[in-house]
Amino acid sequence: MGVLKNVGALVAIGAVLIAIFPPPDVLSGLSSNHDHGPLEIQAIMTAFCLSPIIGTLLGEREGIDTTGGDFKFEEDGDIENDEYAQASIYAILYAMYKNTPNLISPHGKTYQFTFNTWGFAPSPYPEDDPQRHGKAAYAGLVTQPAALEYKKKLGDTPLEIVEIGCGTAAGANLITREVHPTAHYLALDMQQAAINTCNAIHATEDNPGLTCKVVPNGVGNGGNQAPVKDSSIDFVVISETHIADIEIGDLEKEIFTEIRRILKPNGLFLWGNAIPTRVWEQADVELPKLGFELVNNKNHTEGAVIARDEDKERVDMVMDQLLEPYYIMNAPYFGPRCHKVGERLIANFYRHPGTALYLKMVTGYDSYMHQAWRIKK
Ligand SMILES: C[S@@+](CC[C@H](N)C(=O)[O-])C[C@H]1O[C@@H](n2cnc3c(N)ncnc32)[C@H](O)[C@@H]1O
Ligand SMILES: *[C@@H]1O[C@H](CO)[C@@H](O)[C@H](O)[C@H]1NC(C)=O
Q1: Which atom of ligand 1 is nearest to the CA of 242?
Q2: Ligand 2 centre from 114 Cα, in Å?
Q3: Closest ligand 2 atom to the C-alpha of 301?
Q4: Which domains does the chain have, with CATH numbers?
Q5: What does the pLDDT look like over 80-97, one tens digit per residue?
């Protein structure tokens, strides 16, 4: 690796890689319909680290808007959602996770990062389980009182579940293996890389209840449907998906309408996320207009802050472990600057203590809620 510490060699390698895989702009131009391989990710990271966006994100130039208030990217990782396509960030994150399958937890356990979930405390799963808060969120969402009553009435008939925005389907995997083991679960995401991971490690032969499918460009986008018949589903799950993180807009209304189409008459829409408190208030007005009524509502914000505190050590380790495989990180000048930006981007995504998104949960600007909605009779 010594030679790679030489900037000249690095730039040359970067140039070759870039010539082979023309890099899109990491913050906006990556495609979710494509699974980026290891060499391609090296090229993308090299281009990203050498690009002027690093200086911009470090506050050396004007040009990036933060989400308002006293937040600054270089200190707390704040960046306005509109500044980048979420899809690009996920494309690279999922590729990075897959590229780093042997993360080490603070308890010395080896694991692959599959939950893209903040989750909350307390968790019923053991303290040395590195993904226990995400597991708590998924298990809690599908065992809300209304969901348990529904399941009881259904008796031996398998639950038909659809998830929109499943990521690698880590939560779906937990549900089909442990929480509702007889369920038929269709897990949907717009990211090809995430669905590939699902098929490789979650929807395996020993877990026949789980199926993962990619929905190119996402459910609801331009009227895109879920590949599911009308009135056929017991539970639709959405957990920590960037729906309604700014407002209940056209996309959200399309998605809710699609959920209504596929739910059975008594079926439940089980929704959990940390989004602005005002958007939850807007949902209380908009979902009833689309024919839903609220049947469970639980505020997990305090537990979500505790989860981020409890998870701090693990996430600190993850950031180093995720960024470590990229040659460009070893380059003088460019490497440390890029590492800092990468760390801040990942930290804010994880609502890591000290970041803007963490502080927003502490102040109650954002709320982590679990809700169950039913179609109004
Ligand atoms: C923060 S990740 C969470 C993934 C998963 N729910 C978890 O907790 O691990 C959000 C996911 O939602 C997906 N997503 C967002 N909007 C979507 C849509 N309209 N249709 C399908 N997937 C969507 C993204 O591709 C991304 O994988
Ligand atoms: C949830 O609880 C937090 C306090 O932990 C509060 O600030 C917030 O307003 C509550 N959100 C909702 C939607 O009730």
Answers
A1: 15
A2: 28
A3: 5
A4: 2-116+315-363 (no CATH), 132-303+365-375 (3.40.50.150)
A5: 544 344 666 677 777 788
